[in-house]
Write a structure and sequence with these properties.
Distance between the termini: 33 Å
Mean pLDDT: 80
Order of helices and strands: HHHH
Number of strands: 0
Number of helices: 4
Radius of gyration: 22 Å
Shape: elongated
């Protein structure tokens, strides 16, 4: 189940009320935005001439620029998620917060990240099947 689907299920499970809906939706939008991978982007076009900017798009400096841009974008999304989380924490009742804490929103991983290593799962060293 994807995060948006889990959040929709959590909305019903914790009983989000109409006066909490705007804050809940802001939280869910920020959460989904945070986990959505950024789009791949090419070199930035010059707004006036439709040409490439002077910023190098290839090589070490271009790579460093792109990495820094992605980190900045991710940090901005993190700040938005943090603000939405703080607002939601203030809006929900203690009972709703307790229910939400029990709700599994992240990926579900077993002892090996949910991966199985064979038809019967991972083998233990020294064990026979």
């Amino acid at each position: 189940m994807k995060l948006a689907e889990r959040l929709a299920a959590a909305e019903v499970a914790i009983g989000v009320k109409s006066d909490q809906l705007d804050t809940w939706r802001a939280f869910t939008a920020a959460a989904v935005d945070f986990v959505t991978p950024p789009e791949r982007r090419g070199p930035k076009p010059d707004a006036q001439a439709g040409e490439q900017t002077a910023t190098p798009s290839r090589g070490v400096l271009g790579m460093a620029d792109r990495m820094a841009d992605r980190a900045i974008e991710r940090a901005e999304k993190g700040k938005a998620l943090k603000a939405a989380t703080d607002a939601l924490r203030q809006k929900l009742t203690p009972e709703q917060l307790a229910k939400l804490d029990q709700f599994a929103l992240g990926p579900r991983h077993g002892p090996h990240g949910g991966r199985r290593h064979g038809p019967d799962g991972p083998r233990r060293h020294g064990s026979e099947r």
